[in-house]
Amino acid sequence: MTVRFKLESRAALYGAYAAIATVAFATAFTAATAASAVFGGGNASAFDDLNHGRPLTVLGSEQQCERYGGLPTRWRDDPKAGMVHLHGGDFILGSKLGYEDERPAGDGKTRVNGFWIDQTDVTNAQFAAFVKATGYISDSERQGGAVVFHTPTREEMDARDLAWWSWVKGAAWNHPSGPGSNLDGIMNQPVTMVTQADAFAYAQWLGRDLPTEAEWEYAGKAGHEGADLDTAPRDDHGKPSANYWQGVFPVLNTKEDGHAGLSPVGCYAANDFRLYDMIGNAWEWTKDVYSGPHQSHTNGDTAAVAPLSRKHDTLMVIKGGSFLCARDYCVRYRAASREQQEADLPASHIGFRTVLRDAS
Question: Given CA atoms 31, 25, 298, 119 in this order, what sign does their dihedral have?
Fold first, then answer.
């Protein structure tokens, strides 16, 4: 199945765009899911004995995530603080139900070796600790800005394409809305406005790495296969079980999931590998170069609003979707989803988590 839909910017097309896009996306994904509604069931066995006795980060509700300070138990005393161990195994990389760029290669069977992985996205508190310890200056600070999302007005939508994206001078990981903004009250949110190089620098400080696309997806699928992975994440009561967009993108967010933008990490139940926010909230960097087909509507091409003077960098794979993924735009709140992002382009919806691989 291939879904193609060109986003329009004219205010007069608000209603038509939303209605047509919603029907197109929902129909395509519903049909594909119905045609392959075999669920492989859960297999949490990769969450193994190495996790026994370790102080795991316990989140999973609004109350717990709001109280969380953003630093795992034994932070900096334990080299694996805030991580869980997954032993290696086989899984199907990709999906036959989503976009063309998610199609499995061959039978899709892929093997990964064992690794440790962060339970949550790296938080503002963790990245701030890194910066304090090392004096690191992020790419957004060096570049003098970052790409920031905002809900556009009718006039903005009429004036230009991708009106929800702006290059904001002075925006950075520690100034998420631009000059004058800070991290007060949001130290427990994912750090964003970080490039792949920033993420690598943090990971290397802890002796870790960024996950490959396969490692990330193995962790994101958490032992499951089948059509349920390609539906919008909702719990047994029908409530959204991840932070993604409900409503009409980009003008109306009904906040059915409880959040209009980024949420603190761990506000929703963990997957079967005890990992939080693998879907939604913030996209996550991987270490892999992007290859394969690409759907033109997807992420909104944040590079289009960056200064013309900046050089275009290598396109890398990001995974998991963000708070901006909606049923009428993006539809990438799924473990098999993938998107491209320039390695050196900081944006307000992209963060990361780290891994530590087992010795071979």
Answer: negative
Residue with tokens 């999931």: 257
276 neighbors 220 (Cβ within 8 angstroms): no
Complete domains list, the chain, with CATH: 11-357 (3.90.1580.10)
| Residue 105 CB burial class (10 angstroms; 0-12, 13-18, ≥19) | exposed
Work out the average pLDDT over 308-318.
87
Three-state secondary structure call for residue 212: coil
Residue 341, C-beta contacts closer than 8 angstroms, at least 6 positions apart: 283, 285, 290, 299, 302, 315, 316, 318, 347, 350
Q: How many CB atoms lie within 10 A of CB 129?
A: 17
Query: What span, in angstroms and rounded, lies between the C-alpha atoms of 234 and 238?
Result: 5
Q: Which residue has the tokens 């994101």?
A: 220
Query: DSSP assignment of 287-317, as one string?
Result: EEEP-S---SSTT--GGGGS-TTSPP--EEE
The torsion angles phi and psi of 289, rounded to 5 degrees, stand at -70, 140
260 burial class (0-12, 13-18, 19+ CB within 10 angstroms)?
Answer: middle
306: left (phi over 0), alpha (psi -120 to 50) or beta: beta
Distance between CA atoms of 136 and 173, rounded to whole angstroms?
A: 12
Q: Which residue has the tokens 């275009």?
A: 312
pLDDT digits (tens, 9 = 90+) for 74-123: 998 999 999 999 999 999 999 998 888 899 988 999 999 999 999 999 99
Residue 261's pLDDT band (cuts 50, 70, 90): very high
> Rounded to two decimals, what is the model's pTM?
0.87
Alpha helices in the chain (DSSP H): 14-35, 62-67, 124-134, 139-143, 154-159, 196-205, 213-221
The 3-state DSSP composition of the chain as helix, strand, coil percent (nearest 5) reads 25, 20, 55
User: Does the CA dihedral 141-146-148-154 come out positive or negative?
Assistant: positive
Give me the pLDDT at residue 300, please: 61
